[in-house]
Specification:
Layout: H1 6-14, H2 37-65, E1 71-76, H3 83-86, E2 94-100, H4 110-122, E3 129-136, H5 139-142, H6 152-158, H7 162-174, H8 181-201, H9 204-211, E4 216-223, E5 229-230, H10 234-238, H11 242-248, H12 252-271, H13 277-282, H14 287-290
Parallel strand pairs: 1-2, 1-3, 3-4
Antiparallel strand pairs: 4-5
Helix pairs in contact: 7-8
The structure holds zinc ion.
């Protein structure tokens, strides 16, 4: 990576290819060939016709009632992970806090503050929770090891995730642990979710809502190799670093109750027979839409 031009390094890293052998030009040359937006239009039109056939009724019902999203999510800009798609959540259920490389929460960012304020004050979803979702294979997190080769705009943004890398490296040193490159990466991805929850909790309205038990905060990890979601931080937990991380980022008291609830919920799920997707969605959609055929069967 060190010998690549800045732009090449940025493209490689942010596409999750930072581990690719240096010098394999096909990974970082500017794509050539004619621009053909009509091809995208065709693809989108065809997909949308099918989508409206399957889900149009579901959307009409949600639209008629107005949105009352229960979840608000910050996730990475990576094109391979998306909470709504991976958890098969219905329309109207998830409001976007933001999307950026490394799922970074910058408490000084106007658009993020506006989304949070709007959600808290004007949207009345029940059982509200803020999800901070990181993902394995994150190019933004890999970029923390290559900041000096990145454009200033990208490096300035990613620096807000540096506390996660510093925490993991300190822990590996103190515990004299030798782990693989992949395990180290997963640890930083997970620690970064906690670091960003710390940033989230620095927003006064959010902290106040959590402390008055009107809002929960939840770490979620997406595995882009399988599409699986982890509702916890398995790599930090496996290496005995999870509680230390929560203390390091000063968020243990806010996550304590949440984890207890998740454990109880997980135990209940494991005791129950497997339900169909229709039965599962029936719990979150209003009664009217349960009578329709509008569930997302084919996503
Ligand atoms: Zn990412």
């Amino acid at each position: 990576m060190a010998k690549l031009p800045k732009i090449a390094a940025a493209v490689l890293i942010l596409h999750g290819l930072a581990q690719a052998p240096a010098g394999t030009q096909e990974h970082w040359e500017t794509p050539s060939g004619p621009i053909d937006p009509a091809a995208h239009t065709t693809l989108m039109k065809t997909g949308n016709v099918n989508f409206v056939k399957r889900h149009g009724q579901e959307y009409r019902i949600v639209h008629s009632k107005g949105q009352t999203p229960s979840l608000i999510v910050m996730q990475c800009a990576d094109s391979r992970d998306d909470l709504v798609t991976q958890a098969e959540l219905p329309p109207g259920y998830v409001f976007a806090m933001g999307t950026n490389a490394g799922n970074i929460i910058n408490p000084k960012e106007t658009s993020l503050l506006a989304n949070v304020a709007y959600h808290l004050k004007h949207l009345k979803g029940k059982n509200r929770a803020y999800v901070v979702m990181g993902h394995y294979g994150c190019g933004g997190i890999k970029g923390l090891d290559e900041l000096e080769h990145l454009e200033p705009e990208i490096a300035d943004h990613l620096r807000l995730a540096l506390p996660a890398k510093e925490f993991v490296e300190g822990q590996l040193r103190n515990r004299k642990l030798n782990v693989s490159v992949e395990t180290r990466h997963r640890m930083i991805v997970e620690a970064n979710v906690l670091a960003q929850i710390k940033n989230l909790m620095s927003i006064k309205q959010v902290r106040s809502a959590v402390e008055s038990k009107q809002l929960a905060v939840m770490p979620v990890i997406s595995d882009i190799n399988t599409g699986e979601l982890h509702f916890g931080l398995p790599t930090l937990q496996q290496h005995g670093m999870l509680e230390t991380a929560k203390v390091q980022f000063g968020i243990q008291k806010w996550l304590l109750n949440q984890h207890r609830l998740q454990d109880q919920q997980q135990a209940r799920i494991q005791q129950q027979p497997k339900r169909t997707q229709r039965e599962r969605l029936a719990q979150v959609l209003p009664k009217e839409s349960r009578r329709t055929n509008g569930f997302r069967r084919n996503r």
